[in-house]
């Protein structure tokens, strides 16, 4: 299975989230009350769960979403954040890159989501994770970018 985005035939300046499964292209359904254009599917795990971004034009913010499969509508993962889901592991842990704004400036915030729980890993950009749920985040310390390792206790 491969996921990504495809141009929309009815509106060629827009794109939709899609999954290619067994030789067929499936358009992924958007969350209720959001646009079905300007979506992107970024990653899929071995269970067929897909994550990405829903961008409803003229209604910010862009938001991280997850599709439980190719036929179910997406759900919002981090409501209120300008965010995009970047990767998902086989346990269903999603890494989200969010923008936290302060006035006219802002910074990247690394978030993780699993089973409806949201963990804020602090300022930085999530760049990878393993099957055990350990997360690598790029952080800036004293003007130097460094990698930080996080292990999230989801209480399981």
Can you characterise this structure?
The chain is mainly beta and 156 residues long. Helix content is 0%, strand content 57%. A 4-stranded antiparallel β-sheet has the order 4-5-6-7, with no helix packed on it. Strands 8-9-10-11 form a 4-stranded antiparallel β-sheet, with no helix packed on it. β6 and β7 form a beta hairpin. It is globular.
Distance between the termini: 29 Å
Summed up, the helix count is: 0
* Low-confidence region ranges: none
* Number of DSSP E strands: 14
* Portion of residues within helices: under 10%
Largest sheet: 4 strands, antiparallel
Strand neighbour order, sheet with most strands: 4-5-6-7
- Overall pLDDT: 85
Structural class: mainly beta
Rg measurement, Å:
16 Å
Order of helices and strands: EEEEEEEEEEEEEE
| Beta-strand fraction estimate | over 45%
Envelope shape = globular
Defining key terms:
mainly beta; 156 residues; four-stranded antiparallel β-sheet; 0% helix; single chain; globular
Task: State the gist of this model.
The protein has 156 residues and is mainly β. The chain is built from no helices and 14 strands.
């Amino acid at each position: 299975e491969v996921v990504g985005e495809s141009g929309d035939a009815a509106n060629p300046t827009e794109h939709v989230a899609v999954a290619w499964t067994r030789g067929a292209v499936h358009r992924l359904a958007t969350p209720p009350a959001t646009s079905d254009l300007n979506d992107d599917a970024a990653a899929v795990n071995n269970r067929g769960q897909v994550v990405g971004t829903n961008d409803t034009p003229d209604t910010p913010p862009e938001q991280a979403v997850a599709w439980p499969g190719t036929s179910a509508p997406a759900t919002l993962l981090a409501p209120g954040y300008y965010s995009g889901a970047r990767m998902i592991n086989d346990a269903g842990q999603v890494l989200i890159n969010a923008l936290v704004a302060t006035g006219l400036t802002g910074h990247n915030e690394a978030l993780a989501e699993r089973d409806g729980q949201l963990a804020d890993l602090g300022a930085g950009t999530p760049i990878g994770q393993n099957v055990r749920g350990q997360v690598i985040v790029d952080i800036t310390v004293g003007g130097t970018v460094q990698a930080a390792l996080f292990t999230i206790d989801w209480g399981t």
